[in-house]
Amino acid sequence: MTDFQNGLLAVNGENLNKENASIAAIATLNKSGKESYLQQDIPTRKTEAWKYTSLYNFTNNPDGYGRLAETFNSEGLDSITTIPALNAQRVVFVNGQYSAELSSKESLANVVRFSEANEAQQAVIADNLDTAIEQEKHVFAALNSATVNDGILVHVGKNENLKTNIQITHITTAQAKPFTVTGRLLIVLDTGAQATVVEHFVSTEDEQNCFVNAITEAKVGANARLNHYRLQLMQEGSIQIGGVHIDLDRDANYESFQLGLGAKIVRNDINLNHNVGGSHCELKGVYLPQNKQLIDFHSNMEHKVANCTTNEVFRGIMADKSKAVFNGRIHIHPDAQKTLAELSNKNLLLSDDATINTKPELEIYADDVRCAHGATIAQLDDQARFYLQSRGISAAEADVMLSFGFINELLENLELDAIRDLIRPILALRFGRDEELMKHIG
């Protein structure tokens, strides 16, 4: 255990003595998380699951990240908090602290902070918190469990179709010294329930120096449907490491869109368990690092029983000297007959200095399955570029159109128009880099 690793635990461990930790479930979580964390080390390049992702800039920061933010001012942040045209119950945190000023004034009974949960809601938390996570395999999930002192519960009851979307926003602002934000979200959908949850990570434009450790757990009940968006839109100085852990019951449906626009380091682990027959996972993702950013997506689909399906598609575009890592694994257990699973990862390199390491995996121990996986790495097509230029389109304009077209297929299929409308102007800035080129992204 290094001084850096101890620092993360010791300083954030001050949270354990706060009033919010009086909820028995959180106290139990803190204890088990600390025990698991102390038995693990921060990953290095020698760790198989981290061999292409260096945490050097994280672990060798001379000031460390073992402190909380000093200021939580929400003034002037409303513009980056709001997702226009999204009908949503909004819960906002600024530098890890709940902001009543930026959150929706009228609250839904389905959404509550752990610290304000009533007796029935505390029972839901106690029954479901930390049940989808294997802490011994995820040191940063263990750190989250050890240090979290509050979180958000989204609970949708039996056969309830929640018409209002849920938006959970984490905003970070620059501080004098590096700091840590710990976020925990628990989503519980009972039998036949339906809900849409949007996780929204943003930061101010000033220089960032934060570490965001955000963990989401989703328990999707029988015949329930969860539509889940996770949007990483933070500035380049930030570091975000966390993940999503999902359990699916019989005939449950989990549909997710993951967006990574880059930070200094982004690592997102997605772990899903098909626990009962008939469940389906539809996982889509886009990552677009630039400059010297690094984005790492690791997904693991556990098909434990028969008659379940997974469709996973990730696309990435790497520019400048950026780096991306994609590792998608589909594990078919011996009893998982009649499984249908597909995994696709396609990548574009816009620079000779950009890097992608991709590793799609199928691990199959059943014989009556239909599975496929594949990955591609390419540059922009010269013939397509020539075709556009021959019709009066400049080389720069052609590159913007081809790059956007590469990922637009995934955006077009998003159910929420508001999310698509939020993302497109951001992509226009990313691809176009000047106002004249932005007109080619509609």
Report on this structure.
This protein is of the alpha/beta class and 442 residues long. It has two domains: 3-276, no CATH class; 384-442, no CATH class. The chain has ten helices and 19 strands. The strands form two sheets. It has a ten-stranded mixed beta sheet, with helices on one face. The protein has a nine-stranded mixed beta sheet with strand order 3-4-6-8-10-12-14-16-18, with helices on one face. A hairpin with a 2-residue loop joins β1 (88-94) and β2. α7 crosses α8 (395-412). It is globular, with a radius of gyration of 21 Å. The termini are far apart. 47% of the residues are buried.
Beta-strand portion reads 35-45%
Distance between the termini: 51 Å
Please identify the structural class as seen in this structure.
Answer: alpha/beta
Major sheet? 10 strands, mixed
- What integer is the average pLDDT? 90
The arrangement of helices and strands along the chain is HHHHEEEHHEEEEEEEEEEEEEEEEHHHH
- The helix fraction, in percent, is 10-25%
Number of distinct beta strands = 19
Please report the number of helical segments. Answer: 10
In angstroms, what is the radius of gyration? Answer: 21 Å
Task: List the strand order in the largest sheet.
Answer: 2-1-5-7-9-11-13-15-17-19
Overall, the morphology is globular
Taking pLDDT < 50 over at least 5 consecutive residues as the criterion, the unreliable ranges are none
Number of structural domains: 2
Oligomeric form: single chain
